[in-house]
Structure formats: structure tokens, C-alpha cells
Amino acid sequence: MAPHDLRRWIKRVSISDQQKRRDIALQRQQQNRRDSQHQARLLATSILSLQPELEPEEVEKSFSHFDVIRASKLKGSEARQWFSHQLMLPEWMIDVPPRLNQDWYVFARPSGKRCFVVSSDGTTVSRLRNGSVLHHFPSNLPNGARTKDNSGPAHSFCLLDCIFHEQDQTYYVIDMVCWSGYSYYDCSAEFRFFWLNSKLAENGACDPPSLYHRYRFSVVPILNCDQMGLHAAYAGTAPYVKDGLLFYNKHAHYQTGNTPLALVWKDESCSQYVIDTDSKGQIPSQQQVVLELQEDGNVTTSDDPPVIFGSLNREFVEQSGLRFGNLLRFAVSDGGMKFADGKLEMADIHYAGKTNKARAFADTYSKVLFQYSARHSPLRMDDLIVSISSSHDYQLDETNKDIEMAG
Q1: Do both 55 and 72 map to the same domain?
Q2: Domain range for residue 27?
Q3: Coil/strand/helix, residue 43
Q4: Final residue of a domain: which of 246, 265, 284?
Q5: Of the candidates 220, 241, 265, which is a domain's last residue?
Q6: Structurally, how many domains does the chain consist of?
Q7: pLDDT 10s per residue in the chain (407 long)?
Q8: Are the beta carbons of 217 and 206 closer than 8 angstroms?
């Protein structure tokens, strides 16, 4: 076998399926909240008793989860590096979550560029997923323009999770992380979405563009994922071009990086791009996978922890001029992939070359699985509808049992 060829069966250790990771994420979220509350009580006690139990540096470290004021003053590569790790990124839906109609929201994802919009110190900046600047402009967001009506203290900043829709030059807001200096990181999606609608409307951010408000902002209609909500998101009209559906767990906090508590799903009816295309816009005959080269020669996904798909030997790495951190493209060969109980057991892949330099991240494990399923046995809208219907019928049965017992 040639040294550059990864065409082999790769045995994998057990990998938790998506539902198990959702459960773990919710448990970790609850534990983090308890830890934060405990830390706050300790801080309050030390302040009230005038005992310096916590030094200022320790207090700052305890509550430095996010400092948008400091981050907004970063420049160049430091700013790009910091912002490239701040978005909450949905996993691809590879199984239908239980209680989809009770615990989840759904909305049609706008086609466009995912970005953070930060307003601070009299200006507004949008940054793409890789951290680079998309636009620098004035806005009606808190402290987003140098006007009398929109000025404020340094702590009056805002951070929105948006998708910029080129066709109508609009920022469609899909989440609110900070508003007027208040952090919503540790708030549930249910709470964040409620305040998102009210805050944007009252602040004039949804007003038409003007001299001190260059781009329009608009809220994406967020719906309960029952039968009516799912149908409206999937088949209903939208003021933007759709690119799949996004599902958010109502209890999910805003956490940076990939999370199974937010999911993306697509088919040909709600997205132009379901199966990945090449640089010419054509669907390649073999599935393409982008993996990151590690120091030990392993090639991995961008998950935390990463999933190892294979290894390149040192001789080939040196001959090809590859370096640690390079993003490399692989093709899935005829052997395909084998799964059991939601776990990857085998993969048949071979090296196909480097990726475009503009690319910042390797594929996630869930994306690889979704793309593989899309080519062989896709998760269809009917599967989502059946899941919701089954859950609804179960709730009715339980309600009828309660009525009979009460009678």
C-alpha cells in the first residue's frame, strides 16, 4: 500500500451516540450552574464579611468566561483567533431526539454567512466564523454608533449570533448572547429567545437602514417543534433563502463550540446544498472528508475530543511538506463506513490533497455521518414527523390513563 494511501479498515473505539452526548451536555450544564452559584455565594460572603478570601485576580479568573469589552479591543490575528472559537455550533442531526415536540424549537435557517455582531464603544463589527471581519458599521444596537441617542458607558455592549443574508443585506439574528452589558450565556434558549424578540424591537435594530444604522436586523421566526411548527418552518414562506432547519433544545445554554443541544438538518426541499460539492459546484462521486493533521500523524475531526479517522506515516508527511495543523482532504472509498449502535466501527478513506487555505476548521464527526447518510440512507422529513406524531400519541395515552385512574 502506498504511504499516502489511507485505504484501510480502521477499527474505532466506542464513540457515544448523539443522544448520550445530549444527556451528558445537559448534566454538565446543570453542574456548571451549581458551581457558578456556589462561587457567587462565596464571593458575596467574602465581600460582606470584609474578609479578603478571594484576591482580585482570583475573582477575575472566576468570572472571566466572556469579556466582550476586552475582546472588542483585540486586533489582527489575536482578534481572529479569539472570535473563531466563540460561536455555538450545531451538530448535524444523525438521529431524531426524543421529546422533539416538547423540548425543542425549530426555525428555517437563512442562507448566508454565520457571524458574531459586536457593538461597543460607538461602533459595530461583524466577524465570520473564522474570526475575520465581515463588516464595520454604525447600528442602533447598544453603543453601536457615535450618536447622542445611542451612546453609553463602556459596559453597554451587545453580542448577537447572526447570519448575514446577502440578497437583502440583512442580519438575521438567531441568538442573543449579551445585551447592554448583561450576559445571557447561562440562560436557557427559551429565556434568550423571549428577550431577543422584545429587545431588538424596542431598540430600533429592526428599523430600515439609515445614516447611523447601515444594515437592517431581523429576528428569525422561532417555533415550537410540534407538527404545525415543523411544517411552517419546512414548507412555509420566509423572507430569505432557506438553507435547512435549525433545532434548539429549550433548556440549552449558549456554549461555545459544537454542541448536540443544537442541530442542523437539510434535504433538497429546504436547501440548495445538501450533499457537499467541490470547487466547481459539482457533487463528487466519492464523499469528501476534511480532517486535521496532528503531530503524531493522526488525522482527526474538529470535535472536542477529536475523532481519529486514520494516520499518515512520517515519511509521507515529510515528503509532501505537510505540517501539524494542516487541513487535509480525504475521499471515502468503496468500503465506505460501518456503524453499530451509533458508533463508527470502520472507515475506508484515502488521502486526496490539501484544502483551500481559507478553510479554518476540519469537519465534525456529526457532519461526516450526516453526509454519509445523505448519500446512502438519509434522515427524511417523514422520520421527523413520525417521531413527533408518536410522541403526541404517547402523551394522549398517558393523559387518558390519568383520567381513567382519577375516575
Answers
A1: no
A2: 1-64+276-378
A3: helix
A4: 265
A5: 265
A6: 2
A7: 343 444 433 333 333 478 888 888 888 887 776 555 444 444 333 333 333 333 433 333 333 344 555 666 667 777 778 888 889 999 999 989 999 999 999 999 999 999 999 998 889 999 999 889 999 999 999 989 987 665 556 567 889 999 999 999 999 999 999 898 888 999 999 999 999 988 988 888 899 999 999 999 999 999 999 999 999 999 999 999 999 999 999 999 999 899 999 999 999 999 999 999 988 889 999 999 999 999 999 999 999 889 889 899 999 999 999 999 999 999 999 999 887 776 777 889 999 999 988 788 999 999 999 999 999 989 999 999 999 988 655 454 444 444 444 44
A8: yes
Which whole-number Å values give the CA distances from 315 to 128, 240, 318, in the listed order? 36, 50, 5
Q: Are 244 and 271 in contact (CB under 8 A)?
A: yes
Task: Give the span between the Cα atoms of 345 and 338, in whole angstroms.
Answer: 5
Look up residue 268 and give its amino acid: E
How much is the CA Rg of the chain, to the nearest whole Å?
23
| Residue 20: closest CA among 97, 104, 123 | 97
Query: Is residue 325 domain-resident?
Result: yes
* Domain match, 60 and 72 both: no
The pTM of the full predicted model, rounded to 2 decimals, is: 0.83
